[in-house]
């Protein structure tokens, strides 16, 4: 069955938590090595939803297999910007779903008038960096050896997308 990209709804929260946890436990691509507790995640998601932040899920027969969200900044002077996070279960990578999720989130961000989307990505995460570059994100900086996990150092790259 085709994977569908759809706006996140409350009924997806449980599936989102499982999906997030699975990607965290790979201990490679995200800063967390396991998802925060379900209630904490749900509170975060409900807050994003209440504020109208872009939030989408990738669904395979109603199972959440990926997500993207943009957490709009609430600080005075920063409300034109938001922070992007995304991920897909391993079996769903490398077939264009990341691009579809990103296109949906950027379109939604434009609709609500955001001017700048920021993100952080590990330097070792080639597919993610390529995806963001292709979409028009630019590199804004690099933090050398920002993470050292299990004795393996990794840099963090700051990237941003600017709406003209
Ligand atoms: C990063 C991620 C969301 C990308 O989504 P995806 O569906 O795998 O990516 P796509 O299939 O849309 O491909 C995007 C680009 O990356 C390339 N790519 C995909 N997998 C790749 C791989 N393993 N190695 C190199 N390039 C790869 C694709 O060729 C494509 O480039 P193109 O436009 O030149 O063809 C996904 O791989 C993922 O969930 N990774 C783990 C979690 C994560 O890294 N989240 C982001 C944290 S910043």
Structural features, described:
- The chain starts with a strand and ends with a strand.
- The chain has helices at 13-24, 38-50, 97-111, 126-135; strands at residues 4-7, 55-60, 63-72, 81-88, 116-122, 138-149, 152-162.
- It has a seven-stranded mixed sheet.
- It contains four helices and seven strands; from the N terminus they run βααβββαβαββ.
- α3 (97-111) links the parallel β4 (81-88) and β5.
- It is globular and about 40 Å long.
- It has 164 residues and is of the alpha+beta class.
- The mean pLDDT is 97.
- The protein has a single domain (4-162), classed as Aminopeptidase (3-Layer(aba) Sandwich), CATH 3.40.630.
- The structure holds coenzyme A.
TL;DR of this structure?
The protein is α+β, with helices and mostly antiparallel strands and 164 residues long. The protein is 30% helix and 35% strand.
Topology:
Blueprint: E1 4-7, H1 13-24, H2 38-50, E2 55-60, E3 63-72, E4 81-88, H3 97-111, E5 116-122, H4 126-135, E6 138-149, E7 152-162
Parallel strand pairs: 4-5
Antiparallel strand pairs: 1-2, 2-3, 3-4, 5-7, 6-7
Helix pairs in contact: 3-4
Coenzyme A binds next to strand 4, helix 3, strand 5 and helix 4.
